[in-house]
Amino acid sequence: MHAGERLKAIRRHLGISTRQVEKYSRQIAKAENNAKFYISNAWLSQIEATGPVPSVQKLFSLSVIYRMNFVALLSLFGVDLERIGLHQLEIHLPKTHPAKLEVYNENGTATFPVRFHEGFKVEKTTLLSRMVKVWGEVPISAIRHLDIRNSEYGYVGLRDHTMDPLVPPGSFVQIDDQVREVLRPSSWRTELDRPIYFVKIPGGYACSWCELKRNQLTLVPHPLSRTRLRHFAYTREAEIIGRVTGIAMRIVRPEERTRDVSARSPKRS
Question: What distances in angstroms separate CA 150 from CA 75, 144, 207, 264, one per listed residue?
C-alpha cells in the first residue's frame, strides 16, 4: 500500500470518517491560529487515493487525530529521521562545532551488547566482535538513562589541526560541561594527562589545551600540529564549554584510505 492507503486503513481502524477528521483539524487550526493545520474532507480523500506528501502542519494534525507517533507518520512518506545522524557523519563540515545526538523514536530499539565473553579483559586490545557474546535489541528509552544522552558532544572540523595527531580532524569528542575550570600545570604530568577543553571562540569553536593567566585564555596546540598559539579575553571573547572526556576518531584518514585502495588496484595496460 502507498502512504495514503495506509493512512486510510489507520483512520478506518479508529472508526472515524473523513468528515470527522475535517472537524477535528478545524479545532486544531483554530487553537494554533493557523489555517495550514486544517484538513478538508476533499483534501484527505485525495491523499488517501493518490498519496502525495502533506505539509508539515497537516502531518501534525494527522498525528494528533490518529494518535500516531509523528516520527512513524513521517516514515510512511519515506522520511526516516533516524537517518539524520548517519548523514551528518558523512557530511564533513570544515569548522569545529557542537554536535547533538538526537533520539527521535524512543519506542524503537538499538542493537547493543548485552553479554560479554567470560574471558574478556578490559586491559587487552581486541575486536569488539570477540568481546561481545550476545547482541540484543535494547529499547532506546532504556539507553537514554545512560550518560550518552546527558553528555555534550563536539565535532572537530577537518580544518582544525589544533590537537592533531592527539585529536585528529574529523573526530567526535564527548564533553563534560560540568567541568569548565582550567587546571593548573601541576595537576598533570604528561600530555595524555593534560586536560583538553572544548572552547567557544569568535566565529566558532576549538578543541585545545588551555592556559589561563589573569583574564587571558590561551589555546595551546599540540606541538606536532604546527598550529600557532591563540589568545583571547576570557569570558568576553572565549568561553569554555567543558572538558573533553572521550574521543571517537578515524585511525586511517579518508585520503589515506583512497591512496591504499589505489595502490592495491591492478594497473591496466
Answer: 27, 8, 20, 44
- The per-type count for the chain, helices as H runs and strands as E runs, is 10, 10
Tell me phi and psi for residue 152, to 5 degrees.
-90, 150
Strand duo 197-201 + 239-248: pairing:
antiparallel
pLDDT in tens, 85-94: 778 777 878 8
Cα(61)–Cα(227) distance, rounded to whole angstroms? 53
Of residues 167, 262, 46, 103, the one with CA closest to residue 58: 46
Cell triple for 161: 589541526
Using N-to-C axis directions, what is the helix angle for 56-65 and 18-32, rounded to 10°? 120
Higher pLDDT, 178 or 126: 178
| Identity of the amino acid at 209 | W
Does an H or E element contain 232, and which?
strand 230-233
Across the strands, what pairs with 185? none
